[in-house]
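=== Structure Prediction Worksheet ===
Name of assembly: unnamed complex
Input type: mixed (protein and possibly other molecules)
Chain count: three
Listed entries:
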Amino acid sequence: MHYALKFCSFWKNKTLKTYRFFCLFVLIGITGCSGLEPVAAWERGYLAEEAMQWQSSTREAKFKGHVYTSKEASSGGNGAAGGGCGCN
Amino acid sequence: MGGPARLVIEHPAAHTASARTACQAVEGLLRDLETRYSRYRENSLISQINRLAGTGTLTPVDEETLALLEFCGRLWEQSHGLFDPTAGILRQVWDFSGGQQGDVSELPDLLAKVDWSKVLQSEQGVGLRDVGMELDLGGIVKEYGADKAAQSLRDHGFNHALIELAGDVVAVGSKTSGAPWHVGISDPEAPSRTMVTIELTNCALATSGSYQRFIEINGRRYSHFLNPRSGWPVEGAASVSVISDSCLTAGAVATVACLHSGTDATAWLDRAGLPWLSIGQAGKCLGPLAP
Amino acid sequence: MAVIEPGVKGAHSVSTIRQSPLVRTLGAAVAALPAYQNTYADAPPEFTEVGLRYSHYSEDNLSTDNLIAGARGRYDIDVTQLWIEAPVGSNWSVAVDVQNDSMSGASPWFVGTQIDGQPGVIMSGASIYDNRVEVGATTRYFWADGNAGFNVTHSKEDDYEALALAFDVAWNSSDNSRTWSASASTSNDRVEPVNGNIPVFIDSEDIDTASVYFGVSQILSSTAIVRIGLGYTFSEGYLSDPYKLFDARPDEHGRTALSGGYRKFFPEAQGALQIDYRYYSDDWGTDSHTAEVAWHQNFERFALTPYLRYYSQREADFFSVIADLDEEFYADDFRLSSYGALTVGLRSTIQIGEWQMEGQLERYESDNDWGLYDGEAAPALVNFWRATIGISWRFD
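=== Predicted Assembly ===
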């Protein structure tokens, strides 16, 4: 509950107004994507290629996230945050 | 299916057993299609429907059959009635093993029974309104079978394969090296000679043709395709090849092209907007794929 | 595009041609046939996979210009990852991940002023040695339209222990062209700093974190996909760095990340372009942009992926090069300063039968001048090398 309140106050935060609109715009854009040419099931061979995956490998993505989160100030970008560490 | 079938699967050596299983699965589904849709089998679904023509009885069919018939209806509309799965009975008049015509006086009676709009389709099943009507899906089942085989291979995890069913080809992905599959289109006059070689990656090539099946009337050669309105053979191309995503679509467009004569065929093929090749009776090649 | 060349006629992935109305009409009827549906329904992996990865991470020595006292050498970390992932029945999969980090080296203790007036780093004394072990288990359930996973991860090192729970779900639209995903996680951490060559002033403190993420990915064509996601993470507890002499951070931290990605396959080249972007903003005043570009090139037996990553962050509100002790919050940690960073790397994978091997090498360098934001330059910015090798085996 506590976290829900925090999330709501974030959402109301003025400085984030600009990209709240950006998010809505993108969501509308994506849902409006029904104008796209349908890609039939048998045409999806290329999408299954290793080259077309969102992550090169789950373990590499996990390792990479761990390195950058502990050496830079930013985090996130792919799924909810994982476990913590005393990274210094 | 009326011809030889060839399956090529490129896979890592470790998957040989799986590949064999996949081949067996493909063989199984092709046999199943034959059992259901062959007009040469007494107990096929098609034969059952044909036997009950004119009785008012509907034969219950599965979803796949209904969907195939729906596709036929769509093609019938788009071809302005030229593609008609009830036109099979017209064959009785003609002898296509290079022979002569039969009794043309029978045509008017037969033509009365050629009418796709008299095919009854509903959730309860399929039926033919008039006695003597016959349904023949021979024009599309082989191509559909090729697509089903491709799906089966993909389901088994194989993404580099080639399926050939007597001239209808489906390329599943490319070769494992990334190079496309090479398929040759034969010369209708000399089937062992390749007219043009096509590169295929993740698409299908269907060829409709009349080599070895033709009729000579007054010294002119006609294909084995019959015009469902006149009942007469079409003075069309010797062979038409079309490339599309699905073998079913490619085969449908190629078959209808063969049902047109002369420039009408070219107009139809241009309307489809797919890469095509037509080889005329004299060996003349037309279309974007022509050499 | 149908590629028509003289001599040999080619046709590749015809679907990218604009379909004629005739073909589109026929296509609608084709799509209704069972043979063309549900080819990509969600299913657990068909094989069991076991894998091992080893990575070596090595930070550059601090330059003597920036050093006031202490060792120049910084962190060296050896990371070993071991995992097994297997299908269970026809709808489930289970994965167990074990990771071991061996750390040695020194880190900045605080930033002071050198004789010439320039800021300089006082490093922690002798090199520390620490070992962290992390064990995680994930169960995943698959159904026709999607999958959902539940993960528990526990990590332990000399001075830190964490327990995290995470839940994620992905749902495919009816034609599988769009995938919606959501995840939520919570973590309870405890820090009990070791009183060694750096004096510490806390005994035992807790940190609680909760995080949510929503994303959607869309198939654009037979060769392209795009995704966008938004995440929010909130932490509260002892968030300062106990090993820094002058470090007092707020006890709450809210952070937002907006991310997007694009993948495009080029069949003729047998390669794919990979682009990823993230915008990050938190309530400590830090904003950042991360942009990654990679090209995955297939060869007959192996694949090579060179990649580039650009990162730029703005300093936190309470950051200053030399900690300002008059303020309520202060930190001189270089990780909260303004800077830009570039990573250049190469990843390679090779598949031989059921075995896959990977190798990766990258170089990271950071500099205040490379950033998009203004801010003081922290003297302790880090540069590092990272190399990874791995092997995995798949079997029935």
